[in-house]
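User: Can you help me understand a structure? I only have the sequence.
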Amino acid sequence: MDRTVLFLLIVLAAASHSVHCSRDQSTAPAAREVEISSRMAGESFPSFSFLDTEGRPLSWTAAEATLEAEGKSTMPSALIVHVFQPDCGACREEAKALEALSRESGGVAIVGLAHRGEKGAAETFKQEIGVSYPLGIATGTDWARTWGRGDPTYIVNRESRLVFEQTGFEAKDAQLWRDVVTDLAAGRAAQVTGSGRKSLKVGEELPTIELASLVDGRPLRLSADSGELVFRTGDGREQRYRASIGFFSRY
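Assistant: Let's start by predicting it. Here is the structure, written out as tokens:
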């Protein structure tokens, strides 16, 4: 299967199936609130300490805004941290863009932290892409579990404060990074606070999803245009459902 193709797996609970939502509120389970944390600009970015692919210390000390990397200690005007998976196609493209930025932006420190995979996978990632900035191995750590969801990229200022965060990658994001680090290097507050990509929140309407089937290339469509959740297959058949669970992968 081509891993560069967007993959969508939809698990649907059909209204005609024997599993029903109870209308008797006295017997229905109590509703639970689910809070999904989102990093906020100005939040303190935490310290970390790992080993890089060469076995050397790679650490960020938040209290002093100091980076130790490749045997040197620096206080960069901006720190970019890319938390990645070595087998992620989008992460590879992002690393190429970060590498280009690292060659043109003095005073800006860039590090990659692998939150999955072994050291050998990160070494291969570095060699194949030609990454010159240090890569640390954070696999299996509490730091990675807390700060690595979604393969995020963070930009941190001289005061160890988070000024920019994004998940996913598009080519235009590289210009956003440049804008942010240019502001920080000049001592200005960053004017860009995010990539502009929208994330759905609990209670928001599901947008229509249209893409091609990986099996036969025919179009698939999931929408709620009529007030009902409708899934349409490539041969024009429609099915109505009470619930949908979608799993997305960009690689």
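Now, to help you interpret it: The helical segments are 89-102, 119-129, 142-147, 173-185. Residues 201-251 form one domain. Let me know which part you'd like to focus on.
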